[in-house]
Queue: 4 jobs
Job 1
Amino acid sequence: MSSAATVAANQDMLGQTCQQMCALMAERGLPAYRGRQLFQALHRQLVETPEEISVLPRAVRTELAAEASLQPLSLAGIFESLDGTRRYLFKVHDGYSIETVWIPDRGRVTLCLSSQAGCPMRCAFCATATLGLQRNLTAGEIVAQVLYVLRDTVRQRQQPRPAAVNLVLMGMGEPLLNYDHVLHALRVLADPEGLHIVPRRVTLSTVGIVPRIIALGREPDRPRLAVSLTAATDELRARLMPVNLTYPLEALREACLAFPRHPGERITFEYVLLDGVNDSEDQARALLRWLAPLRAQEAAKVNLIPHNPVPGIPFRPPKLERVLRFQALLRAKGLPTYLRRPRGQDISAACGMLAATSGPSAS
């Protein structure tokens, strides 16, 4: 390799844009178009090893096989739900576990991606929080989740390639605490020479890291924003989500009000309903009050998520009639409010259940 920088880049080859791959080939003294051929083979043709890229000279394939990391993830298990959801359990090179979820829905597919191994945010209702933070994922490890799942679907299962793929950064980790790698991974995935998953098909969910929300709003090409809220009073939210002690609700709301939106775009506020904790009519009214300035700008919508039970976490979902009453109170004030249907609950793949379990279900 021509430089230490090039070696470092090759070690995370899947985290390279097409332009970066062209530059790497040029540094090797090869025509830049060889980088485009490599990028397209990885992202469009979903090849797994350099040996499969027949358009590249044999010597280049041999060098790539020796030097480049095209398989930063190893599969530890695939768990399939009765509803069609699949949970992929991966190991990264240093042994940590991460998870990715395939969610099919009427011809469309959503991939739920992890941004960290574990999570540092300590949300009381989330299984991932029990792991703590192990490390940030590289851009290549984030991209690899998408490529592996698509490769498994198309090449192993012989299923049709999805016509449309949506991405949600809602798996393990707080994506805004891995800001640079997450944003670069999304640029790679949006590259028109590859999968071309454009920002409007990507949603990033955060617990509310206020400075990074502000920074994200300044990005020229950014994903849609979702905020995990779960309580509309500082006292309750601080108990459930310790991030509120650092970034309280007023600061979070100001960041959301200042967040630039495209025409018709709304910020999604995710509200995990916990029986007897945050599901009362008073809590619904508190949520309406907190969202009032955003409602006035038609800048908010709410996803209600009945808690998905996990052993060792002392919460349970409310009864359906209580959930529907909560939803009705919000809708009566004109707030778009949706009830999220749990997907993959039987394989520990639903919201709040990811904890790198090696069996179908944690129960």
Job 2
Amino acid sequence: MARRASAAADRSRWHRFSPLVLGCAALFTGLVLSSSAALARQFNALAAWRFTSDGVLELRTSPGLSLRPRHIAASAGRGGRIWLDLQGEPRRPRQITIGGTIASVRIGEPRPGITRFVVELAEGHDVDPSRLDLHSNGQGLWRMAFPGLSREATESIQPFGEGSFERKRVSWYRGRKITRLSPDDLPSLSPGRYRVMLDAGHGGHDRGATNSAGLEEAEINLDVTHRVAALLEAKGVVVVLARSVDSNVRLEDRVQDANSHRLDAFVSIHSNALSGLRSEVNGLETYYFNSHSGRRLAAALHRAILASVHIDDRQVRESRFYVLRKTAAPATLVEMGYVTGNRDSARLSRSAHRQDLALGIAKGLLDFLRGTP
């Protein structure tokens, strides 16, 4: 009797709570589905596409995809069509008229969460589907020719596209947002209005900091200095080099040379080192001495490098370096990382990292010259 009463009570409680349970389940399912739909809208595997001047279709997608082009043969009144499907909803379904051999490109959504990319050839044109092949470099870049088109038809494909083929330039480093620079990101100044001196530290028999792998500061400094000089000159700045080759120039001569010009800024470019077993020390240090304008220059360089380069922040500092004390123009000395550091040493040996440093230094200098805070 007690068991029957207990069972009846359980059934009663279930009937009371079951609408609540079912409602929660429905709400959870709705949230999952709406979340999935939102993710599909936010994510699109197709980042960019273009037809090149040599008649090839190029795509940039998320890495790790497997894509297979499909073909619909030409019919009366229209040319052949090549299409492929990618993950993610299109940001904006559209049809773009190209002209010439390529009649148009259509980007649509055949079903939720899928982008369909269609190339429509002009009437009278088609490809050989047995030879149609989409090649990938394994990192999200694809190329596809149009086999079966005549040479004249291939040459009539007009260069056109959407999106950028540069790798994503925004990343995060130790909680800091990094946006890699390109030369196009640097501001231009009035040609010939500003003059700066770039001082590649050490040189000749003075190799500066070195590490056990043979990485030498003198070589790094000169390489980055030449890169910075080229970037600045392209933006209208007159650049004077304290040394342009692997030679030793005395500090006194560097300062005398700097003070013989009417400089708007002086930048000494160095790499750092620590002796002993201190490989955990890495990072950017930028120096000035007893000068408001020097501090402002140092801060501009430091800020621009940190915003665009993967490197630890070891702050802007004041120091009595000879070239900072004796140079009349606003002066700074930048230490681009530690050749003895367990992270910096590998980076400083790479050309791409040196270019990023050069772009950061150039950006900071240009910002300083044009008065950007």
Job 3
Amino acid sequence: MAITACRSYEPGEIEAAVGRLLERLGGLAVTIRPGMRVALKPNLVMGKDPAAAVTTHPALVEAVAKTVIALGATPFIVDSPGGPSANAAGLRMVYKKTGMAAVAERLGIEVSYDTAEVEVPLTERSPLRKVSILKVLYEADAIINLPKIKTHAQTGYTGAVKNLYGAIPGMRKAEYHFRVQERKPFGELLVELNLALRPVLTVMDGVIGMEGDGPTAGEPKPFGYLLAARCPFTLDHYALSLIAVKDIEMDRVAQARGLVGPLLLLDDGETIEPVPFRPASHRRVNFVENHLPPFLARPISRSLRPLPAFDRDKCIGCRICLQSCPADALRMERIPQLDKDKCIGCLCCQEMCPERAVEVRQTGLSRLLFGSRR
């Protein structure tokens, strides 16, 4: 895998950095040929300005798209945000706010509004034997994965592997969260998605990442690097070592399955320094699931899971959280009210809130056992 310093989103600097990465990996022409239709899959979890560090920066998407065009292929930008933004109107807003529509206009390429689905089989290792995936993404001749490096309140980290969960259309994500509630099976599902989609390249936006309660409510964190690899599992494993975030289930699953290759770091002699990220403040503790039998682990883990809390001053009553909740655990009064017995701890409400009005709080048992993390 390759890494290079990149301190800003100035187009010249980004394009030079992407050029260095691709040269170190042997070039993009190895996998991208003239006439191919190439899906560019950024992280567009919601419609936010690029300065918020929630989504992949459009400067990186544009630099990669230009390289694909130069090879005679046709790139297009595609993602399916969670919650209610996965219809045509929602997608239009997301593409505009994240800067993707402007990139597409400048380069004369498409942003995809195609929400058609296709059922894709997964192996027996997956907790789900088949999943619905965006048809336009699955049928592309090649996929280039363009994640953003961020910590994550529910999974601990989101990067290369987690970004392809965005291949699942809109509210299907919430459905699968409901059906796969435990950490290890969810890690297996993410790994299986990557094996089914097989991106030919991942280029990670690490100029400015996000730390704390990501993927949407954390704080921007200058990181100063772009990373690229043919293997998303190896890229994530190395990225985690740089930001000093540990105990990530999808990485644990990938290692156990032998999917993390030997690290051959292509840095051309650049000095690469770790940049520790502050983890999510209430990351769910997983030693219970890893070290107790299932009949004990499930109820204890449920009692320890962090729960969403709604800020009366920030909430605008948009109801996006209600529409995004796979467990139907919210009802609306002045602010959303949580049914703790129904809540599965997926934190979709926190992830999709456009006003950052959802905090993640420890339960009483968690505070008693581990102390307050605030």
Job 4
Amino acid sequence: MAKIKRGKQKKYGNLSHRDKFDEDRIDVRQVTDHEHMRGRADRWRERVNEDELTPIYNPADWAAYPLGTVLSMLSGHHYIRLDDTGEVIDARVRGILKHGIQNTTTVVSPGDRVHVELLEEGTGSIVALTPRKTTLSRPDPIRTHLEDVIVANVEQIIIVSSVGGPAFWPELVDRYLVFAGYYELEPLIIINKMDQAAPGELENIRALYEEKLGYRVLSTSAEKGLGIEPVREAVRGRSNAIVGLSGVGKSSLLNAIQPGLNLRVQAVNETYGGEGKHTTRMTTLHPLAMGGFIADTPGIRSFGLWDLTPEEVDYYFVEFRPYLGQCKFANCTHHHEPGCALQAAVEAGTLAPSRFDSYQILHAETDPARERPY
């Protein structure tokens, strides 16, 4: 196969090394003169024929290959728990799964259900990926045009915040609640370090999020073992993801839920408002002795909402819904327009100012996947 001229090499520089020297493959992939990479981050996206059909998953085609759940990933290694034996193997992704248009940082993520070809000495090769039911995602911190799937196939999202240190952060809790509503996940709010609460603080949080908004709220102290049993019952037999700011006590809570995990914990820095260091560096699924899984995710200081348009944000603040459509202007953004029903409700004390502030911050992020570096 003859190499193409240097000019064409530059012109088709966005192709893989294998493809850029093959004029037939260039023609098949329909790369045109004006299709060039716009920036450094875009070089990660592989351009292919957009008319190419996505393969349809048929379980019968992969019946000969064991099914398992991805527990964690590190440097191309995928640690998979097999359904039939409970064995955990180290598997790599088969190259053919990486072909096609990719808008995610990785082909496989923790929580994915995969078929594997077993190899020698506890290793394997991932040959097929089952369709995901749900994803917990954010824009990738570096390549912001790509989706970073933190964990897949969860039913319940456990939103852990704290009082004392770090202080309760309403905006981050509201972000997770919007995400849970958008992807139809069941949210559970846990307020940890209840022994550090100021007088009336827990009651005020519960009055807003549980009594007024209808979300389930539990109070715990992982360090002192308070309120742990209701949490165990809430996660029993389910696929859960635990999320929250660094330092709120997620790993400590998991250690209390299932003694023996021995997850690393670390003291918070009181000088900076009680914020903790990242003790969880990567998402890891932990099988629960009571049945189900719980995914321990890294502390996320700012959680971006993937694939959510500004026009959709107000609907996922559940208490806003009776007021939608009642503003003076049909395209009201609820920021500065006169005759805004939401602003009037806040001024009348019907809507919580903290929730309205959270909405305005989320709406202002006009393109969450591209405009804000998470």
